[in-house]
Amino acid sequence: MEEKKKQRAFNILGNIAVINFPKSYKSSVKKKFALDLLKKQSNIKTVLEKSGKFKGRLRKMETKYLAGEKTKEVLYKENNCLFRFNIDTSYFSPRLSNERKEIADIIKKDETVLVLFAGVAPFSIVIAKNSKAKKVISVELNKEASRYALQNVELNKIKNKVEIIQADVKKLQNKLPPQRFDVIVMARPQLKDTFIKESLKYAKKGTRIYYYDFCKEDEINSIVKKVKSECSLSKKKIEILKTKSAGEIAPYKVRCRVDFEIV
User: Distance (Å, rounded) from C-alpha 179 to C-alpha 96?
Assistant: First the structure.
């Protein structure tokens, strides 16, 4: 009974369940729980244990196989889009599904969009399939994630709207010729650098930037100040359009979004 009380909720990605067990759980108990889960939920084909946190700039996660089909490759559906990726080698957050749809809904007809830190291209593809954007450029450093991004563009039949670029945001000008976008989405992970300076090289008057950061739930104003300071250093005047919490990532800590426009 005590072990059941400790049991944490599991995440389901496609046909794979990922469980974060308390440290006190024995291997035999984990195995039994995994096998029971496979019996109870026919949609789950593989059960993995989350064995480590997301690490490094590439946001890689560690998992251990417990039961079912031996695979770590997911086929996941959201917002009328399909995504294939490997859980261990490519970061993907199903919790951002509503965020991706919200951004897609505010893209205007024929706008050009630059998505930075794009991963396997969820923001890019949801925008392309659920808006009338003219073109979406999707930039990601992780080679494995970029490989899946290319597959996902094919999978969703939007080769004419989405271009995948595997590159470091700090060296993006080596791979993306100078141009200005109507919208820039900065779905950045928890990194010390804001990369705002780099994004502004692709902005013009009227460009809207959707910037993601992390802070305590009552400190979003500190992120706004940081955005204003970074833009000021780059001699760009901005107008803050909106701030919001984009979901809790830990007790009292949230992913936040700051929307601003170049004026």
Answer: 28
In the chain, the domains with their CATH numbers are 2-71 (3.30.300.110), 95-262 (3.40.50.150)
CA 193 from chain centre, in angstroms, equals 17
Task: Give the number of other Cβ atoms within 10 Å of residue 130's Cβ.
Answer: 17
Provide the β-strand partners of residue 244.
257
In DSSP notation, 137-151 reads: EEEES-HHHHHHHHH
pTM above 0.85, yes or no: yes
Span 217-254, pLDDT tens digits:
889 999 999 999 999 999 999 999 999 999 988 888 99
- Of the candidates 81, 165, 155, the one whose C-alpha atom is nearest the C-alpha of residue 116 is 165
- Contact status, residue 108 vs residue 58, Cβ threshold 8 Å: no
The answer to whether the CB of 17 falls within 8 A of the CB of 2 is no
How does DSSP assign 8-28, residue by residue? Answer: PPEEEETTEEEE---TT--HH
